[in-house]
Each structure stands twice: as C-alpha cells, then as structure tokens.
C-alpha cells in the first residue's frame, strides 16, 4: 500500500468533512491518541462557553433545567450504545460508576460468592473488583486471557458456575484492542445465572455496541475518549430497565432519592435508573458530553464503526509490511472481527521509540508497559493519510536508530 491509496480512501470517506469541526493544526504532529483523550471540537468549546454564560445569567434558578441533564444527556448517549430511553445516566467517574454497579449486582445475587473478570483488563476494573471481593469475602476469579487475542469463550465458560454472581469485562481491551462478542458473552453469563457488566470505555463512539439487543444488564464508560467531551468529563452508567428497581446502589446520595427536596430523614431510592445518581451532577461537564454525543450521532454509528475498521485494517497491514522487518510486531488481533478501534505495536525499545516520536513532534501515541505503543485513530477526525504518515514516521525513527537511554518515563505516558 502506498500514500496514493490512503489519499483515495480519504476522498471517498463519507465522514471526511467532520474533521473541519475540530481545530486541527496540520503542521503539528500526527495525533494518534484518540483512544486516550479525544480532540477538542468547536461544538464542545461552544457548549462550555454557553454553559458558563447560562450559569452567569441564571445562577441558582438554572437548576430547574440543569437537574434533568444526567438523564436527558444519558438518553442521547444511549443511542450510541444501543440503549433505549430511561436506562443511561451521565454522572460521576467511570470508577465510581463501576463501584456502584458492581456492589448493587452482588447484593442482587445473595448466596453467590464469586466474581469473574479478566486478569488483563484495565487496572481500575480489576482494582474495583478486588476491593469489593475483599470487603465482602467473595472469591475473585481473574481469567488469564491471551494478551493479544483476548478472552476465549471456552476459558470463560470454565470459570463460571452456580456460585457466580457477576461477570465484569471490557468490551474492547485497553491494551491490545481485543474485542469480545457482546451477545455471546452476555448469554453465557446469563446461562449460569450471573449478571453481566460491560466496560465500554474503549468502544463507545467508535465501535458498534448494542446493549439492549444483547440483553446486557449493566455497563459503564467514559466520555473523554471517542466522545471527545474533554479531560475529566463525567462518565456514564447503564442499567437494564427491567432490572433497575431490584437493585440498590451503595452510595446513598440525595440525588438518588425519590423526592430529594423533601429532605427526609430516611433514604428512599428513586424509581428506575435515577436511583444510581449520587451527588450534585457536573453541569459544565454534562454540556460537553451532550455536544460530543450529538456530533457522533450526526456522523452515524454505522459509518463511524466502518471507518474504524478500515483505519485499523490499514494500520495493521502497514505495521506488518514496514515495521515488522525492523523488529516491531502487531500485538492486536489480526482478525478484524476480534479487533476494536485501535492497534498496539510491541518493540523491545518501545519507550525510547514512543519518546522519540513525541519529542520530535512526529506522532502523538501512548506507551503501555512493558513494551507496547498504542495507535488510536478516531474515525471522526483521523484521515487515512494520517495513519499512513504516522507509520512512515515511525519507520523513519526506527531506521535512524533509537536512543539507548531515553530517560525516565514521566508519570503520564
């Protein structure tokens, strides 16, 4: 494949015009870290400006409108993850939402004392599961999934039994981009009487997700990656409507009360998913999430997913053709049917390589210990020629030689 092919793909790209909705300096480094932090869009910037003006003008009276935003924005976000209305809230952080849902799920399955997860899952997911297992005296079964191709369905089946209360997994692995079959895994958990919780942080907004159709019970995710809502933007949670009223979350805040301004002495959870609210919602963050979601809905999830698949397929082919001969290797699934929206590349000197790319203002990617670089092209604004040039620049750095000692890694990589 040469540059002309990438340019032709860009000419035929139905999402090409969406790049103009972001302030992008084409003279700068190629940004390939959309799976870590999405770019700023004009729409989100304007939404934040409007939110500040609204606060200035309305002051406390604005709460008559703002108070419904977690559910209103949640319903719109639900369209990106295949969730009908009344099941999604935008609130808190992904970690806090995960804690709330895991704890509620365990309480809803009394007598079942096993939690099942993936040993190669994102640290927050494993830490929350481990913390609740320790606090409750549960057994935590972390399956040693294949670090490249992901969790095998037969291995998962072998870890489930009549004592399993909850299965909690990421739809797309944060490191390798291995993608699980949402329907098949959910069905397997249900056949053993367990509840199924999905982390959608590395899929929503770029990968096809259909929670209702899969019969999923619970889900969480973040809004600062493919949803482009900005650093620290609130997370979201999903609770299947038929399940919501039998669950009771552990953080009893006044926003989750059935009549919060009654200021009653006893906690009475709200009906439905609203009981999973806790404290005062981050209104400016909700404005940003709303704008980010609307841009993705305008683009269309089918088109976003199709472009994600095409981008990662191109990157995978170029990695094999141009970087593998130089000692690098693709450590994402080769089968596109098992891959999410990013790719990972391993190299013995991955940190030196990543550091040279960033310091030289060539490519912005991220490093994951011990030896991987992730490339996260976001379908809303990444061009095919960006992906082609990123690999070309990575090849040039490897060819010219890497610094033996690139220095200590910073806290953020």
Q: Give average pLDDT, whole number.
A: 95
Q: What value does the Rg take, in angstroms?
A: 22 Å
Query: Strand order of the main beta sheet, please?
Result: 2-8-7-6-5-3-4
The biggest sheet amounts to: 7 strands, mixed
Number of strands: 13
Shape: globular
Q: Helical residue percent? A: 25-40%
Describe the structure.
The protein contains 14 helices and 13 strands. The longest helix is centred in the C-terminal third of the chain and has 23 residues, at about 300-325. The chain has a seven-stranded mixed beta sheet, sandwiched between helices. A four-stranded antiparallel beta sheet has the order 9-10-13-12, covered by helices on one side. A two-stranded parallel ribbon has the order 1-11. Helices cover about 40% and strands about 10% of the residues. The chain is globular. It has helices at about 5-10, 40-60, 65, 70-80, 95-105, 125-135, 155-160, 180-190, 210-215, 240-245, 285-300, 300-325, 350-360, 385-400, and strands at about 30, 90, 115-120, 140-145, 165-170, 195-200, 220, 235-240, 330, 345, 365, 365-370, 370-375. It has about 425 residues and is α/β, with parallel strands linked by helices.
């Amino acid at each position: 494949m040469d540059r002309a092919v990438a340019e032709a793909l860009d000419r035929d790209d139905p999402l090409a015009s969406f790049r103009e909705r972001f302030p992008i300096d084409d003279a700068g480094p190629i940004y390939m870290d959309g799976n870590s932090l999405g770019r700023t869009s004009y729409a989100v910037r304007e939404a934040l400006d409007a939110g500040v003006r609204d606060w200035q003008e309305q002051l406390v009276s604005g709460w008559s409108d703002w108070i419904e935003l977690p559910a209103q924005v949640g319903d719109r976000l639900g369209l990106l993850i295949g969730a009908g209305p009344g099941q999604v809230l935008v609130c808190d952080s992904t970690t806090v939402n995960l804690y709330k849902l895991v704890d509620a799920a365990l309480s809803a399955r009394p007598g079942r004392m096993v939690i099942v997860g993936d040993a190669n899952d994102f640290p927050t997911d494993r830490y929350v599961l481990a913390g609740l297992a320790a606090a409750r005296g549960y057994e935590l079964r972390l399956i040693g999934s294949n670090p490249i191709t992901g969790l095998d369905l037969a291995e998962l089946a072998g870890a489930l039994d009549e004592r399993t209360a909850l299965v909690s997994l990421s739809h797309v692995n944060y490191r390798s981009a291995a993608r699980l079959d949402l329907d098949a895994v959910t069905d397997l958990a249900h056949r053993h009487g367990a509840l199924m919780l999905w982390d959608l942080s590395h899929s929503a907004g770029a990968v096809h997700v259909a929670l209702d159709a899969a019969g999923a019970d619970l889900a969480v995710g973040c809004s600062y990656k493919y949803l482009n809502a900005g650093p620290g933007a609130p997370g979201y949670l999903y609770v299947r409507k038929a399940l919501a009223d039998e669950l009771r979350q552990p953080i009893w805040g006044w926003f989750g009360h059935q009549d919060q301004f009654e200021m009653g002495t006893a906690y009475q959870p709200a009906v439905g998913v609203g009981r999973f609210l806790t404290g005062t919602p981050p209104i400016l963050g909700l404005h940003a999430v709303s704008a980010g979601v609307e841009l993705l809905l305008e683009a269309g999830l089918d088109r976003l997913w199709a472009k994600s698949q095409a981008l990662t397929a191109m990157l995978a082919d170029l990695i094999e053709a141009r970087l593998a001969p130089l000692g690098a290797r693709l450590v994402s699934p080769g089968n596109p049917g098992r891959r999410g929206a990013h790719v990972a590349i391993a190299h013995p000197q991955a940190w030196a390589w990543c550091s040279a790319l960033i310091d030289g203002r060539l490519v912005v990617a991220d490093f994951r210990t011990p030896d991987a670089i992730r490339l996260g092209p976001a379908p809303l604004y990444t061009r095919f020629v960006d992906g082609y040039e990123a690999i070309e620049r990575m090849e040039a750095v490897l060819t010219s030689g890497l610094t033996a000692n690139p220095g200590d890694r910073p806290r953020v990589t």
